[in-house]
Each structure stands twice: as C-alpha cells, then as structure tokens.
C-alpha cells in the first residue's frame, strides 16, 4: 500500500520535480509569459521558493505541490532582473504578462497559489491532503480562511474544492485575460473558513 505524506516545504532534491509539476499543471496559464520549453522549467526551478510550497509525497517521491502566498511573497520569486537573466530583452513584456496573474492576499486569509498533482497520481487524495494542510497552516497562523481561485474550464478541480468545503464568494468574467492565459472565460474565488487554533 503506497504511503502518502505531506510536507511544509519542497526538499532541495525535489526542486526540479516541483517545478515540473507546476509547469505541467499550469501549462496554458504560463505559456504566454514563460514559453513552453526547457527555459520555462529552468526559470520555475531557479525561482521556486521551497518554503512557500506544501508538497505531497507518495513513497517518498514528490507527486503534488500547492503554492502559498506567505510572508509577503509567493511560491515563485519573480523579478524583472530574474526574468532578464533568463529571457533577455523580452523580460519586460513577460513581467507584465505575469503581473496579470498576480493576486494580493487579504490580511486574514491564506491565499493558495495553485495546486498541482502529477497526472499519474490524481484521484488518490493528494489534492485533498494538500488542501487540508493549507487549512492547518492557516489556523496555526491565526488566519480565518483559505482562499483560492478556479477557472470555468476546470470543473473537476472545482468539484474537489466544493467537496472539501470551499464555497464560492465571487465570480468574474475575464474574456480578454482568459484568452491570454489559456482560454477560460470566468474566474471564481472560493473560500473555506478555518477553525481558530487553540494557542
Ligand atoms: C485539481 C487537482 C489538484 C486535484 O488533485 P487530486 O490529487 O486528483 O485530488 P483528490 O484525489 O484529492 O480528489 C479527487 C477529486 O477531485 C476531482 N478531480 C479534479 N481533477 C481530477 C483528475 N484529473 N482526476 C481525478 N479527479 C479529479 C474529482 O472531483 C475527484 O473527486 P472524487 O475523488 O470524488 O472522484 C489535480 O487534478 C491537478 O493537479 N489538476 C491540474 C492542475 C489544476 O487544475 N489545479 C487546480 C487549479 S485551480
């Protein structure tokens, strides 16, 4: 029986794997800014913040990750100089395209920055484990809820979020931006209240 585990950070040796899972899951969203080839994988691996990602393992191998907005930063340290080093003079517009994906967390919420599970390991509960751990982390930090967003072309992810108790708080049509980031037309914000953690 495979043994699943959950960790608060990406181990150093799994940096590449975490970047690959993220790139694969968010291929359409990231393509416009980072391309689709090796340079995207390199960029993500180089700029990943292991301490702002939860990771799920099966038999010790990282098979799922969840990016977190924590301590004023996100799961990837994206800066203009970093993009310039990787992409040269096209860094400027790439930065702007990425900026369109950026969201600011509210002070009393843990904002998730994308959950990605290895396609071969989906449907085994790893996504659920990652969401549970995010709730525990939020409660430990004295935050009141976990927030995430999901697009209309991803009904299976939405079904998972609803199953574990997330509720819709806002939906927005994003026709132009949606085309740029992979063909969706609506973004829905969902939240889950977390019980206060006894201190
Ligand atoms: C969404 C995602 C993280 C779910 O991870 P997971 O490990 O398969 O989730 P779980 O096994 O805990 O739960 C599976 C449930 O989620 C839903 N689900 C979402 N995507 C699924 C998939 N590709 N295969 C199977 N179930 C999926 C189903 O409703 C399923 O419910 P069920 O078990 O009652 O049939 C994963 O499918 C994924 O990485 N997708 C690509 C990236 C993505 O869309 N991320 C979310 C962006 S908002």
From TrEMBL:
Entry keyword annotation includes Heme: no
SUPFAM superfamilies: Acyl-CoA N-acyltransferases (Nat)
A molecular-function term among this protein's GO annotations: acyltransferase activity, transferring groups other than amino-acyl groups
Classification via Pfam families: Acetyltransf_1 (PF00583)
Alphabetical UniProt keywords: Acyltransferase, Transferase
Annotated ranges, domain N-acetyltransferase: 5-195
Keyword GTP-binding set for record: no
Full protein name: N-acetyltransferase domain-containing protein
Organism phylogeny: Bacteria, Bacillati, Actinomycetota, Actinomycetes, Micromonosporales
């Amino acid at each position: 029986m495979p043994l699943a585990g959950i960790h608060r950070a990406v181990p150093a040796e799994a940096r590449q794997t975490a970047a690959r899972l993220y790139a694969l899951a968010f291929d359409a969203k990231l393509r416009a800014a980072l391309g689709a080839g090796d340079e995207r994988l390199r960029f993500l691996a180089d700029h990943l913040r292991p301490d702002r990602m939860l990771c799920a393992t099966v038999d010790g191998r990282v098979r799922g990750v969840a990016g977190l907005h924590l301590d004023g930063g996100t799961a990837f340290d994206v800066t203009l100089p970093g993009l310039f080093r990787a992409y040269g003079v096209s860094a400027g517009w790439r930065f702007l395209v990425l900026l369109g994906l950026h969201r600011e967390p509210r002070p009393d919420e843990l904002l998730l920055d994308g959950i990605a599970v290895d396609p071969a390991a989906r449907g085994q509960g790893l996504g659920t484990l990652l969401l549970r751990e995010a709730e525990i982390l939020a409660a430990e930090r004295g935050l009141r809820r976990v927030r995430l967003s999901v697009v209309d072309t991803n009904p299976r992810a939405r079904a998972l979020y609803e199953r574990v108790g997330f509720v819709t708080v806002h939906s927005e049509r994003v026709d132009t931006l949606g085309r740029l980031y992979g063909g969706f037309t609506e973004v829905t914000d969902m939240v889950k209240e977390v019980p206060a953690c006894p201190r």
